[in-house]
Amino acid sequence: MELVKAKVPTRRAFSERLSELGDRDSGFAVFESDIGRSTYSYLFGDRFPGRYFNMGIAEVSTMAAAAGMAACGRTVFVCGYGVFLTMRAVEVVRSFICYPNLDVKIMSSHGGVTAAIDGVTHQATEDIAFMTTLPNMKVLCPSDSASARGSVEIALATRGPVFTRLMRDPLYELYDAGERFELGGSKRPRRGSDLTIAAYGDMVFQALEAARLLESRGVDAEVLDLYSIKPFDREALLASVGKTGALLVVENHQRRNGLAYEIGMALLKERSTARFDALGLDDTFAESGDYAGVLEAYGLSAARIAETALRLVADKGRK
Amino acid sequence: MNVEARARELEPIARELRLRIVDMVHAAQSGHCGGSLSAADIVTALYFEIMDLDPERPDKPDRDRFVLSKGHAGPVQYAALAMRGFFPVEELRTLRRLRSRLQGHPVAGKLPGIEATTGSLGLGICEAVGMALDARLRGGEWRIWTLLGDGELDEGAVWEAAAAASKFRLENLTAIVDRNGLQNDGLCEEIMPLRSVPEKFRAFGWEVLETDGHDMAAVLRTLSAAAAVRGKPACVVAATVKGKGVSFMEGVRDWHGKPPSDEEYAKAVAELSGGVAWNW
Asked: What dihedral angle (degrees, nearest 10) is formed by the CA atoms of A288, A60, B228, A71?
């Protein structure tokens, strides 16, 4: 499968859809903390200035003001960088948005080390752990323009808080514009029989590249795109693993408390005998650098995925 | 009716509010008397005179909204709501019990009349800013009132909200500071000096009004004046006494978050009811 280079990052695709839907739905508002030129939320602001609020560099009060507006019955999108929205403002998200189950939709850019060049202060590598842990919160991570646009629609159609993780740089386009995405859904961009590689966001592309490398080694890998992280598509995952007998979960996130932990527990409860491993940041922070270099240095590149996958497959027959 | 006469009517209501605060905190053997008592006159004025509310229709769209930013003073809001008819006064004694609608700090959606979840300091005023923006988007005439403690002003988010309210010229928002001078660990001026609260809010672009927070007529006049401010948000700095109305609690740091013993409770009830046997 030949991937097409993306022209826009998922953060932009998301904001473009938000702006388009602003025409159709006159209700929702958008809050920004002075990085609208980066999240592209300004696209909405330019068209709907009356429903766009730039609150300054103040993520905590921005999030709480969004909660106040949502408490009045209005859906609010809060746009920003993952580190600040999910960590600086995490208590507001927990107590003032998730607890009362309000319609605040968090548009979170610079997920994982996709902000590689900016360094650790701007890399949201624990965001999924924080957000998936909160009751009522739903978590999405699209990989391309179509899935990012679909995520806006899921967020609007879902009652309560929804967190969407987006990326800094354009990577590839994977899905057709007409493709459907839903809460709890997944995609299977590559079918295979020897091993399942489950990933989300940018790691889907590394997984697909790894599958290509594995093919030359005689291993037929299946790739699952778990763009809906909470809830995740348990049925599709279990069916795939039941078929292949081996699972490798790859996340641009701390390995601890990410989706792999959740999936590992599901496999244990199912008494799965499948071989299992997970890749992610190994209890460490990353650093500044070019994106590909950081992925390689911290074990998230296609080559490292393929290496780990080969070990899993070799281990399959053993008791 | 003139303000003085209305104040005379509200004073016994404020006294009953104080009785019920002490009673529910005693029943729960947990909760915050000091900061609830200091706010009792302000909250009485809001709930029984100033705000447009309907206990029969707690969700009526054009109601005024109150956000207790100093959420630990939940008992004062609970007492006001119950006495105003939003729920039975008997329920007050379920404060902080398992399955009670009267959570340790107010929770929106649990109890009629609670507009916003609060309790984590510095954030209620931020929620109030969001509510005021929403009211403007809807073209609504209603007001948003929020009550803060002075210790709460240590929180940086308060000043983020102060800046935002000023930027958006939220004339439909009034913040009231319950300036009792005490916080959990001691005197505000020792824990984190606030310097001039009025000057701070003025510097942020707010209209600032000052009042004695226990002179009911003055409270009524000041809150009405705050509601009439146009073109910018209004801040009322109310000079109060922590624990007001119960002699041994007044101005004593220890009564920030301590429940009264049976003996202290009896003494407090005797003082607040003027020695007359109080009929609950």
From this structure: 120
